[in-house]
C-alpha cells in the first residue's frame, strides 16, 4: 500500500544558532506547534552550539562558521545567503520564517518565490546591545532597507509595531503582533514539584523574592541588589536568582559590597546551602518553576524585553509579579487595556495583573526609583491579601498564553499568505 505524498505547505524556520535563550525557546515552540499543520524544516547557520531545545523536526545546517576578520564575516554572510537560496529551491519552500536579526537578513536577501516572514523578538530601538558603528549601520541602513521587503513582519508585542513603522519604515499593512505562547498546563504541573529540603528551609525562614533569567545587561539585576539591601533594613527577606550568565561574578561582587551574604550553587557545595545567606544564586535549573511558585513575589528588573518568557511563566505559576515598565511586553501582559505612557513611570502602578514599576537604568532618577521599589516591596510583603489577589489575577491572565490561542493566529497568517494552499 502506497502512501500519498505530504501535500501540506513547506515551512522553513531559520535561526542563527541553537544556544540558550528566550528566542531559541520560542523557535522550538514554533517548530513543534507549526509541524502539526505544515512540513517544517529548521535551518541554523552552523552546529557550533548544542541543540538545547530539540523539536524532533529535521534540522539543516548551512555549515557556515561565524567570527573571523571583517572580510571573513562578509564572505560568510554571502555564503549563507547563497546556501539558503539553494535550500529554499531544493525544498520547494512556501514560507520562510526567520527568528533574530542575523537570520532576517539572509532570509530577505535569499528571497525567491516563497513568502518571507520576520519574527521580531524584542525592541530594536531600546536594545543596548545594538551600539557603536555596527549598531548604527544596522539601525540606520540594514533594517530600514531590508525589513520593508518582507511579506509580513510579526512582532511578539504590540508595542514593537510603532517602532517598526515609524523608525524602520515597514508599512502598517505588513505588521502584525502575535504574542509568545507558553505551555501553561506543563508549567503549572512542574511548579508543584517540591523543593529540596535545604532550599525549602530558606523559603520557610523569610519571605522570598525570586527572579529568573540570564545574568546579563538586558536583565539589569544589579539595581535589584541595591533595592534588596535597603529592604533588609526594614524586614527579613531572601532573594533567589534562578539562572546564570556572564555577569555572575559582577553581581556577586556588587552584593558583597552591599554587605549581603551570598550563596552560589556554582562554586559552593550543596551542604553549605543554609538559611544564613541573604542572596541565593541557584544557577540554571531544569525546573525553575518550583522555585517561583512558593515565592512571595517574582521581581523582574529588565531594561528592555520583547514578550518575556520568564514573566509569563511566573504568572502561570500563580506568583505575584513585580516588573519594570520596560519596553516592551510587561505592560501588555500586566495591564493589557492600557497604552504605554508618554513619560516613564516614576511611581508604582498597581495594575490588574501585577505591579508595574519605574525602570532602574535612568541615572537622573535612579535614587528615587530605588526608593520607590523598596517602599513598594516593603508594602507588598506586609500585605498578604494583596499578594493573593494579584497572584490569582496573574494566573487567570496566563490562560491567554496557551499555544491553542496563539497558533490559531499563526495559522490564519499563513493561510492569508498562501490562499491557494491552505484554504
Question: Would you give an account of this structure?
Answer:
With 423 residues, the chain is of the alpha/beta class. It folds into 2 domains: 10-181 and 402-422, Rossmann fold, CATH 3.40.50.2000; 184-400, Glycogen Phosphorylase B (Rossmann fold, 3-Layer(aba) Sandwich), CATH 3.40.50. The chain has helices at 22-34, 70-90, 101-109, 132-147, 161-166, 184-191, 197-205, 222-232, 248-257, 289-292, 309-316, 330-334, 366-381, 384-397, 403-417, 419-422, and strands at 10-15, 39-44, 59-61, 95-99, 115-120, 152-155, 175-177, 208-212, 238-242, 262-264, 279-283, 297-300, 321-324, 349-350, 355-357. The strands form 2 sheets. The chain has an 8-stranded mixed sheet, sandwiched between helices. Strand 4 (95-99), helix 3 and strand 5 form a beta-alpha-beta unit. The mean pLDDT is 94.
Tag the structure with descriptive keywords.
Rossmann fold; about 425 residues; seven-stranded parallel β-sheet; 2 domains; about 40% helix; 16 helices; alpha/beta
In terms of per-residue confidence, which ranges show pLDDT below 50 for 5 or more consecutive residues?
Answer: none
Structural class: alpha/beta
Q: For the terminal residues, how far apart are their CA atoms?
A: 29 Å
Number of helices: 16
Q: Could you say what the CATH topology of the largest domain is called?
A: Rossmann fold
Per CATH, the superfamily of the largest domain is Glycogen Phosphorylase B
CATH class of the largest domain: Alpha Beta
Number of domains: 2
Q: What would CATH call the architecture of the largest domain? A: 3-Layer(aba) Sandwich
Helicity, as a percent range: 25-40%
Strand count, sense and barrel status of the largest sheet are:
8 strands, mixed
How many DSSP E strands? 15
The best one-word shape is globular
Average pLDDT figure: 94
Q: Strands of the largest sheet, in order across it? A: 10-11-9-8-12-13-15-14
Radius of gyration: 22 Å
- Share of residues in strands: 15-25%
InterPro entries: Glyco_trans_4-like_N
Organism: Hymenobacter negativus
Protein name: Glycosyltransferase
Domain Glycosyltransferase subfamily 4-like N-terminal: 21-184
Amino acid at each position: 500500500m502506497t502512501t500519498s505524498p505530504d501535500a501540506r505547505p513547506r515551512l522553513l524556520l531559520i535561526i542563527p544558532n541553537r544556544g540558550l535563550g528566550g528566542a531559541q525557546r520560542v523557535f522550538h515552540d514554533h517548530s513543534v506547534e507549526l509541524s502539526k499543520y505544515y512540513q517544517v524544516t529548521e535551518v541554523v547557520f552552523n552546529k557550533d552550539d548544542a541543540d538545547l531545545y530539540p523539536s524532533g523536526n529535521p534540522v539543516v545546517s548551512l555549515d557556515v562558521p561565524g567570527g573571523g576578520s571583517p572580510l571573513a564575516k562578509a564572505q560568510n554572510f554571502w555564503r549563507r545567503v547563497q546556501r539558503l537560496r539553494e535550500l529554499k529551491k531544493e525544498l520547494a519552500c512556501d514560507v520562510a520564517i526567520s527568528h533574530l536579526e542575523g537570520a532576517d537578513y539572509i532570509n530577505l536577501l535569499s528571497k525567491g518565490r516563497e513568502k518571507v516572514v520576520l519574527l521580531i523578538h524584542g525592541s530594536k530601538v531600546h536594545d543596548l546591545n545594538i551600539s557603536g558603528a555596527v549598531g548604527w549601520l544596522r539601525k540606520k541602513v540594514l533594517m530600514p532597507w531590508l525589513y520593508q521587503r518582507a511579506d509580513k513582519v510579526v512582532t511578539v508585542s504590540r508595542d514593537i509595531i510603532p517602532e517598526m513603522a515609524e523608525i524602520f519604515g515597514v508599512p502598517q499593512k505588513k505588521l502584525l503582533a502575535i504574542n509568545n505562547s507558553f505551555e501553561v498546563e506543563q508549567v503549572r504541573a512542574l511548579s508543584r514539584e517540591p523543593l529540596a529540603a535545604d532550599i525549602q528551609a530558606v523559603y520557610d525562614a523569610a519571605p522570598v523574592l525570586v527572579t529568573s533569567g540570564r545574568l546579563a545587561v538586558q536583565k539589569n539585576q544589579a539595581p535589584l541588589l541595591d533595592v534588596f539591601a535597603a529592604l533588609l533594613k526594614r524586614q527579613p527577606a531572601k532573594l533567589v536568582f534562578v539562572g546564570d550568565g556572564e555577569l555572575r561574578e559582577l553581581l556577586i561582587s556588587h552584593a558583597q559590597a552591599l554587605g549581603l551574604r551570598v550563596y552560589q550553587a556554582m562554586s559552593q557545595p550543596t551542604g553549605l546551602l543554609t538559611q544564613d545567606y541573604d542572596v541565593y544564586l541557584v544557577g540554571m535549573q531544569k525546573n525553575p518553576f518550583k522555585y517561583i511558585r512558593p515565592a512571595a513575589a517574582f521581581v523582574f528588573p529588565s531594561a528592555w524585553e520583547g514578550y518575556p518568557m520568564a514573566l509569563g511563566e511566573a504568572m502561570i505559576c500563580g506568583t505575584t509579579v513585580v516588573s519594570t515598565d520596560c519596553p516592551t511586553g510587561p505592560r501588555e501582559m500586566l495591564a493589557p487595556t492600557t497604552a504605554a505612557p508618554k513619560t516613564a513611570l516614576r511611581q508604582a502602578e498597581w495594575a490588574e495583573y501585577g505591579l508595574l514599576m519605574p525602570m532602574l537604568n535612568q541615572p537622573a532618577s535612579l535614587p528615587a526609583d530605588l526608593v520607590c521599589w523598596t517602599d513598594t516591596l516593603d508594602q507588598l510583603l506586609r500585605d498578604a491579601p494583596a499578594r493573593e489577589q494579584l497572584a490569582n489575577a496573574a494566573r487567570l491572565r496566563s490562560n491567554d498564553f496557551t499555544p491553542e490561542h496563539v497558533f490559531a493566529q499563526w495559522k490564519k497568517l499563513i493561510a492569508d499568505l498562501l490562499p491557494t494552499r491552505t484554504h
